[in-house]
Protein: Phosphoribosylaminoimidazole-succinocarboxamide synthase
Amino acid sequence: MARRKKIYEGKAKILYEGPEPGTIVQYFKDDATAFNAEKKDVIDGKGVLNNRLSEYFMTGLNQIGVPTHFIRRLNMREQLVRNCEIVPLEIIVRNYAAGSLSKRLGIAEGTQLPRPIIEYCYKDDALGDPLVSEEHIAAFGWASQQDMDDILSLALRVNDFMSGVMLAVGIRLVDFKIEIGRVFEGDFQRLIVADEISPDSCRLWDIETGQKLDKDVFRRDLGNLADAYSEVARRLGVLPKSNVAKPTLIN
Ligand code: UDP
Structure:
């Protein structure tokens, strides 16, 4: 069998050429990294859980008319997605203060924000993904004004959807990061939600106890990361019950 072509290997995923033009296979690794890859580990079962969880969120978004790159899950670790040109920005949406916002502005973690706050970071690992303003984005041509309007509207719709889905299972969506892709349809371009949506890219806190169920468990050495992600998957009904304790066995 011909070996498929690897297009890109990132910190948590590998992208392979897809079976049809315009498609890509996204493979979820077990690797966990934080602080721009200064902290690294392999967490058994993380890739399987994130593949399932990202499928769950992207499918829901597609169903409510928020376009995403997700086509279908292929197996335990892989999903078929639309090939798109990634806008070189990380779009961060915050509902409660945490992480870098708390540090930068001296606001206690967990403080509810008066309204969702959107931030943009320029995607560049060598620079540590610096925070940028819309002025930078326009001046350097990373996205047009129309793109920025569309990105804001997509980000707020994802926030409402994700906040609601999480609230229903007793979890607070503190903040999250998404990436946006450009697809071309004839003479038109469209922006869609790309990359992944998983506990790697969200802050998720139990509403009752405040327990962290996201990558901060790894960043801050708070326990077993796969257990935290399994708990999110269990609450959402994403894992078959018998496999809850053994995420690596799910198909
Ligand atoms: N985030 C991410 N990838 C990044 C940076 C941030 O997925 O490269 C997510 C992070 O998990 C959190 C949100 O974006 O849910 C806001 O992160 P923050 O700016 O507070 O950065 P951090 O404290 O993680 O450095």
User: Anything to note?
Assistant: The CA atoms of residues 8 and 15 lie 5 Å apart. The radius of gyration is 18 Å.
